């Protein structure tokens, strides 16, 4: 399948989502969703975009869960609550 240069993502040259940071994955996901919402891509291209979008969304979720775990560990070790306020007991 030839890459459509007007629509980023879902190409053979696209980086593996696992190599992307949160902002990169999110920005590409926004572009993929925009391309899908435009509805002008042929079926095969739309399927490739959908698959890329699923992979990007999973990467974003993975990174957000990791960030939440880090916050949870930090607040637990400092005795702070979820909002960063000192825990009262």
Automatic annotation (TrEMBL):
Instruction: Classify the source by domain of life.
Output: Bacteria
SUPFAM superfamilies cross-referenced by the UniProt entry: XseB-like
A Pfam family for this UniProt protein? Answer: Exonuc_VII_S
Which molecular-function annotations from GO does this UniProt entry contain?
exodeoxyribonuclease VII activity
Q: Which UniProt keywords apply?
A: Cytoplasm, Exonuclease, Hydrolase, Nuclease
Q: Which InterPro entries match?
A: Exonuc_VII_S, Exonuc_VII_ssu_sf
Which residue stretches belong to region Disordered?
1-23, 69-89
Q: What is its main location?
A: cytoplasm
For this protein, what is the EC number? 3.1.11.6
Q: Which reaction does it catalyse?
A: Exonucleolytic cleavage in either 5'- to 3'- or 3'- to 5'-direction to yield nucleoside 5'-phosphates
The leader peptide range reads none
Q: Where in the cell is it found?
A: Cytoplasm
This protein's record includes keyword Ion transport: no
Q: What does this protein do?
A: Bidirectionally degrades single-stranded DNA into large acid-insoluble oligonucleotides, which are then degraded further into small acid-soluble oligonucleotides.
Q: How does this chain assemble? A: Heterooligomer composed of large and small subunits.
* Family membership noted in the UniProt record: Belongs to the XseB family.
The UniProt entry, under NCBIfam families, shows:
PRK00977.1-3, xseB
**Protein name from the UniProt record:** Exodeoxyribonuclease 7 small subunit
> What is the species of this protein?
Pseudokineococcus basanitobsidens
